[in-house]
Design goal:
The radius of gyration is 16 Å and the shape is elongated. The chain has one domain: Thiol Ester Dehydrase, Chain A (Roll), CATH 3.10.129. Helices cover about 20% and strands about 35% of the residues. It is α+β, with helices and mostly antiparallel strands. The chain has three helices and seven strands, in the order βααββββββα. A hairpin with a 4-residue loop joins strand 4 and strand 5.
């Protein structure tokens, strides 16, 4: 399925007193990779809005296996794994130098009609078209 990745260097303003990235910043790193993925398929947030749908995150899971350190270069991979009734994306954060997996995560998003504010129980055709799975 569709996959994208981003390379990030952990900045000073993201570290805590233990000199590692504060756990809350990981969500930001996932978002950067998710936006790269959406850019790749031509359906990032402006295109979503233009299509009449918002895609809020309704579920987030992060498994922190190893810390991210100041100035460490990481690769954040985002891969679409479900798209029919919801959009599920799995992530891996890897150390750029060694390739070691440091973190894994997933998000679930659902389509919401912007006008009616109603959640859809299946993904709209525009998503399937952008993913190249519309039959």
């Amino acid at each position: 399925m569709r996959e994208a990745q981003s390379t990030i260097t952990i900045p000073f303003h993201d570290i805590d007193v233990m000199r590692i990235a504060w756990h809350g910043h990981y969500v930001k790193y996932l978002e950067i990779a998710r936006c790269a993925l959406f850019d790749d398929i031509g359906y990032n947030f402006p295109e979503m809005e233009a299509s009449g749908y918002a895609w809020p995150v309704i579920d987030l899971h992060i498994r922190y296996a190893y810390p991210l350190n100041f100035q460490q270069k990481i690769i954040v991979k985002a891969k679409v794994v479900e798209w029919e009734n919801r959009l599920k994306i799995k992530y891996e954060i890897l150390d750029e130098a060694s390739g070691k997996r440091l973190t894994k995560a997933s998000t679930v998003q659902v389509a919401v009609n912007i006008e009616s504010k109603e959640m859809l129980f299946e993904s709209p055709p525009i998503l399937l078209e952008k993913l190249g799975v519309l039959e």
